[in-house]
UniProtKB/TrEMBL annotation:
UniProt superkingdom: Bacteria
Gene Ontology biological process: glycoside metabolic process
Descriptive protein name: PIG-L family deacetylase
Organism field: Metallococcus carri
Cited Gene3D superfamilies: LmbE-like (3.40.50.10320)
Gene Ontology MF, one: hydrolase activity, acting on carbon-nitrogen (but not peptide) bonds, in linear amides
InterPro entries: GlcNAc_PI_deacetylase-related, LmbE-like_dom_sf
Keywords: Zinc
Keyword Zinc: yes
């Protein structure tokens, strides 16, 4: 008997967020026959990009188009924009129409409707820190948690990285690549989640090409006016097999999980 397929809805804050922490798992799920849908909360219009991408005021449209190209590389079935504008990094007041300016309940109701329409079995969000702490990422965690109460799903998994693992990976990467001057490696010592909270560790080495293609799709986020590499561009310049070592696993937290660390986000689902 063939294994049962499920529907995974991956809820992200901005176009390109799917690429770094979850694209291998999304590609792996799609390759296994599961239906994968990406919901992006914002249009990414506040993202940093060179004038070549933002000069005509069309950055939001370009970033959503980049997301669709990334989704195609991963085998994702559908991409849905939740309807909000990018809130920006802060701490300034979020503009009207942005994700964090909207009440959590309103955004959760929108997401819950999508979960029902898609008949989602698994919802993917972020950990409570929002990864590195961007306010739109924190709001994804909050909205996702509430939406899962409104439209119950079988499992909620929160994308994260063990803090010690990412710090070690950055130290390895620095042996062969000099990160941009504005790259704050120390921030990662306070971000994401402790290893003790990890419940799912997914090996995605067979999906590395798809993951790299997902990253490459977001060309605007690898650009800068001064010609310096942005973080995404820096990651893509890491040579293999070091790239495989850094990005060959992805991690998740399921607050309801009990027992040893699982190898697949669908493990145990009927």
């Amino acid at each position: 008997m063939a294994p049962m397929s499920h529907t995974l809805v991956a809820f992200h804050a901005h176009p390109d967020d799917e690429a770094l922490l979850t694209s291998g798992t999304l590609a792996k799920a799609a390759a296994a026959g599961h239906r994968v849908v990406i919901v992006v909360a914002t249009d990414g219009a506040a993202g940093l990009a060179s004038v070549d991408f933002r000069g005509d005021g069309q950055l939001a449209q370009r970033r959503l188009a980049e997301l669709r190209r990334s989704a195609e590389a991963l085998g994702v079935a559908d991409v849905i924009h939740l309807g909000y504008a990018d809130s920006g990094m802060g701490p300034q007041e979020a503009p009207p129409g942005s994700f964090v300016a909207a009440p959590v309940e309103e955004a959760a109701q929108r997401l819950a409707r999508i979960l029902r329409d898609q008949r989602a079995d698994v919802l993917m969000t972020y950990d409570a820190q929002g990864g590195y702490g961007h306010r739109d990422h924190v709001r994804v965690h909050q909205v996702g948690a509430r939406a899962a109460e409104l439209a119950p799903v079988r499992r909620v998994v929160q994308a994260t990285v063990p803090r010690d693992t990412i710090v070690r990976a950055l130290r390895l990467a620095r042996r062969v690549y000099r990160f941009p001057a504005d790259f704050d490696a120390a921030a990662f010592e306070r971000a994401f989640s402790p290893r003790s909270q990890i419940t799912h560790r997914v090996t995605v080495l067979r999906q590395i090409r798809a993951k790299r293609a997902s990253m490459r799709a977001h060309a605007s986020q690898a650009s800068a006016d001064d010609g310096a590499d942005r973080t995404l561009a820096a990651f893509l310049r890491i040579p293999r097999p070091l790239y495989d070592l850094v990005f060959g696993r992805e991690w998740f937290i399921d607050p309801a999980h009990r027992g040893p660390v699982a190898r697949d986000i669908f493990d145990g689902l009927p």
